[in-house]
Amino acid sequence: MFGVVFPNRSFPIDISTFAQIDTHHWVLDMNHFVGEAYDQIGEMCIFLLNNFTLPPDKALAVYLQSPGSGFVFCGAVTLNRPSAVLSLQWPEPGGTALMSADSTTPLSAKIGVSVEDAAALQSVDVAAERKIERLAMKVGENLFNFMQSFCGVDGSKLVVPMDILDRWFKKFQEKAKRDPGFLKSFAL
């Protein structure tokens, strides 16, 4: 049905490596599969196998779960997009259920895959949306830090020069032209 590759970390893995929960759900236990901390695995490629035909209105949705957290949607593949490299943004581990019932074994991180209605999914490109969001936050942080160095205080208000945005934007453009890696430093 599908296969998975963790770039620079694994060979292609087929569905048999996943534990099948029912006819539409599979889970990969990262503690048993990965010989290192799960949160060091930052990408995965999921792909439909050639001999499998997914119904056109369905998708294979990918979810991540850190120890003690719930599953979080990561992305999906469909017949129109039969493979995807997904950025694995692991959710923060939960604090209440970090140990299993026997209190000696920590719960593991998991990757879940399920067959779902494509129309019901948030977006098949969640990773790209998160990258854009992080980029916007980093640019905003750069602007804030620049403005902060020129701030004055007038009672309970911060005062900045009127041309501060123009000055920041010119400086930002100059840095981007001088240093090709400058803009890449904003990406995580």
From TrEMBL:
This is Uncharacterized protein. It comes from the Eukaryota. PANTHER family: HIKESHI FAMILY MEMBER, PROTEIN HIKESHI. Residues 132-184 form the Hikeshi-like C-terminal domain. Belongs to the OPI10 family. One of its GO terms (cellular component) is nucleus. It holds the Pfam family Hikeshi-like_N. One of its GO terms (biological process) is protein import into nucleus. GO terms for molecular function: nuclear import signal receptor activity. Residues 18-122 form the Hikeshi-like N-terminal domain. InterPro entries: Hikeshi-like_C, Hikeshi-like_N, OPI10.
